[in-house]
Amino acid sequence: MSDMVDTPAGRLPVVKMDRRELLMGLAAGTVVPLVAGCTAHNEALGRSQLMIVSDAQIAQLSQQTWQQSLQQERVSRDAGKRRQVERVGTRIAQGSGLTQYDWEFVVFENDQINAWVLPNGKVAIYSGLLDVVGNDDQLATVIGHEAGHVAGRHAQERASQQMAAGMGASLAAVALDQGGVDNAGMWAGVLGAGLTFGVLLPYSRRHEYEADRLGADYMTRSSYRASEALTFWNGMMARSSRGSQPAFLSTHPSDAQRMQALDAHIRASGYA
Question: Which domains does the chain have, with CATH numbers?
Answer without folding.
Answer: 57-152+202-268 (3.30.2010.10)
